[in-house]
Amino acid sequence: MKKLSVFLPVYDEENILIPNTVRLITYLDAHQSNYEIIIGSNGSRDRTPALSRMLSERYNQVVSFHLKEKGVGDAFKHGVQIARGRIIVSLDMDLSANLSFIERAVELLDADYDIVVGSKKMGHESRSVFRKLGSDLFILMARMLMGLPFEDYSIGAKAYKRDLLLSNIDRIDRGTSYVLNIIQAACRNGKKVIEIPVRCEDHRQSKFNIVREGLYRFAMLFRLWYVEKACRGDS
């Protein structure tokens, strides 16, 4: 059993896959002695799967897999199931979040927290105004509907105890709403969730269709609210 699994979901990332994986290995070698990197390709149509396999053959620390269909949640679920670390840190392949998040998250999970939420809003984010406004509205609605106080539900810069993820594996859907689902379940069950600031430099065009992703995220939020309301028996 390893201490740490760093999970990287990838979709058509042939241009940055090798240099950023090497950069991550260099960082982790300096700060962790017992880790693995899991590269989870989902729906990639370029050389990403081949390059991922090459990295896993070249570096003992790297594990890779490829799912034919696009679905970052499916990739995360598979990554959780094959992970050998008791702590799982999820990062974006562009490594836009400052890598110091990894060390701080490991410290907090070792100190008996169950989830560490890296928040760009609490720290520093360099993103388009349109993306910031959409994110702010989602955060507001999550606070109003679910009573959740957190400021970031994106998939990157999040850390979890693997046991918690395995016990909530059915809450990991095909898309990106699994972050909200798992945080909500953890809070409802009395688990310890902490949010910390993270510095993020995200200048790339999103891999998601922003409008479609926004509609999906809000639809899943309202669905979660409705299910929780029904479970409580609210009228």
Structure description:
It is a single chain. The protein has a 7-stranded mixed beta sheet with strand order 3-2-1-4-6-5-7, with helices on both faces. With 235 residues, the chain is of the alpha/beta class. The longest helix has 23 residues, at 210-232. The chain has 8 helices and 7 strands, in the order βαβαβαβαβαβααβα.
Write the layout of secondary structure elements.
Elements: E1 2-10, H1 17-31, E2 35-42, H2 48-58, E3 62-67, H3 72-82, E4 85-90, H4 100-110, E5 115-126, H5 129-146, E6 158-161, H6 162-167, H7 178-188, E7 193-201, H8 210-232
Parallel strand pairs: 1-2, 1-4, 2-3, 5-7
Antiparallel strand pairs: 4-6, 5-6
Helix pairs in contact: 5-8
The first-level CATH class name? Alpha Beta
Overall pLDDT, averaged? Answer: 92
Q: Percent of residues in beta strands?
A: 15-25%
Task: Write the CATH architecture name.
Answer: Alpha-Beta Complex
Largest sheet: 7 strands, mixed
Distance between the termini: 47 Å
Order of helices and strands: EHEHEHEHEHEHHEH
- What is the structural class? alpha/beta
What's the gyration radius in Å? Answer: 17 Å
* Separate helix tally: 8
Fraction of residues in helices?
A: 40-55%
How many β-strand stretches? 7
List segments where confidence is low: pLDDT < 50 over at least 5 consecutive residues.
none
For this structure, the quaternary state is single chain
Under CATH, the homologous superfamily reads: Spore Coat Polysaccharide Biosynthesis Protein SpsA, Chain A
**What spatial order of strands do you see in the largest sheet?**
3-2-1-4-6-5-7
Please tell me the total number of domains. Answer: 1
Q: Would you give the CATH topology?
A: Spore Coat Polysaccharide Biosynthesis Protein SpsA, Chain A
Apparent shape: globular
